[in-house]
Structure prediction request, 984 residues.
Amino acid sequence: MTASPGFAELLRHHRRAARLTLEQLADASGVSARTLSDMERGRSRGPQHRTVAAVADALALDDVDRKLLIELARDGRLRDHWQRPAGLGELPRSVDDFTGRTAELSWVRELVSAESAPGVGAVGLITGSAGLGKTTFAVRAAHTVRSSFPDGVIFLDLLGMSPQPLATADALHLLLRALGVADQQIPSDSRERASVYRSLLTDRQVLVVLDNAASEKQVRPLLPGGGAGRALITTRRLLSGVEGVRRLVLGPLPLPESIQLLTGILGERSASDGEAALTRLAELCGGLPLALRIIGNRLASRPGWDAAELAARLADEERRLDQFKAGDLKIANAFGMSYEQLADPARRMFRRLAAIPGADFDAALAAIAGRMPHEDAWEALDDLVDLGLLHDSATGRYRFHDLVRLFARDRLHQEEPAAERDALTGRTVSWLLRMATLAGRWFEPGYGHPDRTDPDLAVPSSAQEADGWLRVSVDNWLGALRAAASSGRHSLVLDCAEAMHWFSDQWVHGPHWQEVFTLGAEAAAALGDLAQQATQLNYLAWVHAIPLNDPQTALRHATTAMDLATRSGATAQIAWAHGYTAIAQRRLGHFDEAVASAIRAAELFEPLGDADAYFACLANIGHCLRDTGRYNQAVEHYRKALALADDPHSGMTPSIAAHLRADTLAHIGRCLGLLGRRREAIDMITEAIGLMEAFDTTYAQAAALEVLAAFLADEHQAEESRRAYVRAAEVHEAIGDTDAAGRCRNLATAGS
Amino acid sequence: MTTIKNIVLVHGGFVDGSGWQGVYDDLARDGFTIRIVQNPTLSLDGDVAATRQVLDTLDGPAVLVGHSYGGVVISEAGTHPNVGALAYIAAFAPDKGESVSTLIADPPPGAPVPPILPPNNGFLFLDRDKFHASFAADLPAPQAAFMADSQVPWGINALDGAVTEPAWQHKPSWYLVATEDHMIPPPAQRAMAERAGATVIEAIGSHAVYVSQPAAVVAVIRQAAQGDNGQS
Prediction:
């Protein structure tokens, strides 16, 4: 089977089929022969939409061929443009045509490499008004000093200009993950997170780029303390309250560099525009790289347009608007020039995209916001990307520069009546929440792939796809959840929160579960649904007991849930409330109370036929007994649980049973070992580890290996013990617990 | 925290207040009331009196901004009750008893020496041929030539005028360091700024940064006007 032809091959094929030379096609299409030649030789894999459309017209392609050619060009563009960083905290690519800023780049180089006193020289802050290219500069600077940071460069957008800047605790979470700390090793307390973060930055030669910081309060805990780590901040404010920072204010690009940037964007056509016109255009852009890019893209995307004419119109516009406040005026003018030349659908799409709550979005959501068929949405998005009004990414997601977004929002308010705007918000919120509900239900036993869905939804075809959508779109559906809650659309909110129950177990350390289930509980209360309110409060108890590790609050929620569930006769929720109470009590060290609650929960779950929950209660009783040294009794409960997992007719979800069976074997083994029955223990744990190898590496596996290694050492099987420690170190390393990995490696060497 | 609505700009030696045009335009568009002091630079006392006269006419607090020698003037005049904040632009920020003369008396080895000609009847001039390179390297040559040829003679008494009560000890201050300054060495600027406890911002620019980069200067003034010291 041959690979399907790429854009270049297909273009050449069509040109030859039409019996045209490059020059003839150039004449017919208005696209230069050199550009055509570059495209045919694969040197320009992602030519702009307008260019391809002009070529397709000139070749008189039929609809099918035309569509294919345009799609291949789009794929090329998606590869070539801004790449949404794949890895956590990965530094974005630097733009190819970065221009000027030589002295500023040396300033950064000098700063980060300075052998300076602790606290001084560790942090550089780049400030300046919007559109000066602070982020582009910081990314460029980070690339140029990359080699000085053998432990890596981390990039984090703090969303300083959005209505919801990144919370410091969440920023620390992301930074710690990017530094290789596993979710379960990250403290729930924000202050502890900051201290772990600081201690890591003391030893590691890492550069942290904190883009678009909102405030002193947000950014202060994210700064290195004075060791090897360095940080570079971009912000529109001076953040005067942050100490030990060196600040650089970024000015406009000088005129010669502005012209250079513009010329670079225009490529070969700049010669025909003439130096005078380009100089005038560059002057009108006020040295703002963003304005230069937008204006340049506008000229480049319309081969027939004249730079001198554009400059004259821009100057007119500036005179007309001169009485307005300065600030972002030049930029708004540049945007206006591009906006006006768009066809109606693209204009409509552009301004309506401003209503999307999150930082980026895909074509499906754009189609909903723009209220147009998918094909038209693609077309409009292509136009917007061509003009630089939107950035696209390799993963098919789009985003605004925040200034462009403000401009779009302004257009939306100017051009669409209130009723239309309300309808826009209404359908976007509804779609996002119904999508999230649909995706969340994939993980719920008894749902999975839906039989029947609303025709407007983009149905995920697998659990993996649903998981991906929920994670990548989280700020969109969460924003929709907030909007729906504040406008009283309680049923939508409750459905969505309820659908997240099982998915939250897939993404235990997602930072927003507390908010999701709080909104769910409030929606249920507003609807007067006591049973559902109890359910949501139980989820909240889970959030506090497990990921947030705040057993006191968990206990409080579980108590309220129990009360509501009792009043409404929701037996299952009474059982869950007992179950979460047990978990919280155990975490508080109140083992007797924990056992009592777990027994009560188990008694309720058994007749309800919820075998998974019943199992969890038995295991929890086992943990409490083990933790208090009652190993024989613990083994008894674990064996009861194991029997449940072994019984194919128990009603347990098979995949859950398989995981828990392995965990339980390891727990029993550990108790047996502590009872002195080490041979039995070793066999049992070995079996457990064998089973665990089939699953994703987890903390349970690492812990089991470590226990096994200790028992083997006690049995004088030094070599086997050493191997188990080495493997334990590997697993710890894989899940990001470097401390534990180090401990196991030391034990491995100590024993040999 | 109230936002300051008035801005008073004080120029330095060898120049007059017209160099503030770019800064003025930007600030005016933001709605500030702006006064430019045409201080004669004959003596510190005279310049302080001229500045206080302007401050007296204001209806509320101002950010008092000084460039170069203007920094000495604002350090002395800044104790005026109508001054809410100070902004130093590549400026001297003397301590009690210090003057421009004492501050430049012992230049660190290797520091560029400004091409100031020997005093003539009690006035100083910059060497016209070296003006562009030393004072305004980031301005176009014709503009620098105009500034060189329209120089204001700088009185010896102005250089010798010592500060009695530095305002930066009492008022929040901001400092813009010009990193390519060949008149006041950037390390000296940083040291004075740090001593004054100012919030320091750097700009890649010459001593004439207030002409060449009005946007950077305005960024500093705007923040000073917002009282944005991050403690709120």
